[in-house]
Amino acid sequence: MEERVRIALARLLRDGSASLEELASEARTTPEHVVRLLEGFPVRVEGGRVLVESKADLLLEAWRRGVDPVEMALKSGWRDFERVCGGVFERCGYRVLLNVRVRSQGRLFELDVVAVRKPWVLAVDCKRWSRLRSSSLKSAAVMQKERGRALASALSQSLRAEVRGWTEAKVVPLVVNLHEGQLKIYEGVPVVPLSKLVSFLNEFELYEDELFVIPVKLVGMELHDYSG
Fold this sequence. Notes:
Blueprint: H1 3-15, E1 17-19, H2 20-27, H3 31-37, E2 43-46, E3 49-52, H4 55-64, H5 69-73, H6 78-91, E4 95-104, E5 107-117, E6 120-127, H7 134-154, E7 168-177, E8 185-186, E9 189-193, H8 197-203, E10 214-219, E11 222-225
Parallel strand pairs: 6-7, 7-9
Antiparallel strand pairs: 1-3, 2-3, 4-5, 5-6, 7-10, 8-9, 10-11
Helix pairs in contact: 1-2, 2-3, 4-6
């Protein structure tokens, strides 16, 4: 992808909109050329301005066309990063819920992303950390196990519509980080960089025995959790 497109995308990801004249000046080209460069991206041109329809979709499309997702994601906001992760799961065939809150044993837990594809229910924590201290990632993994247990206990309650008709589910806690670190898995919880999330989703079922999986038997609207 040529540098002019990267310049325009960076500005749009940061601000959400910009005038054609501004983009043309920054990219050192003409407004007409900017319009051509942005063809196929989730943007629209109104009154001489380029408006982003979805930062997450813009980032995913840039990624599809070969732009480093980490470079571009750094230019988007925190909530947009969660939507980017959700978009990756959707493209891999999962139904996605964002910012899910569940209660368990009197505590409230919030999950950034819940990705569902029978029989899997992935409990995802999205981290935009730039400093990848192993101790911080380990703590995140341990906390995500707690959120995973809370999610498992909610499958016959607030989330029963997502697993209706299933006889069983497998809940897997997962941490997705913007950058790649040395820690790959901790106590069975995968720590996956955004750039490798697609390959992880294509392969993780092969390594189920290495993961912390919470099996949940679903019988009618009753739930039996055999996670121990």
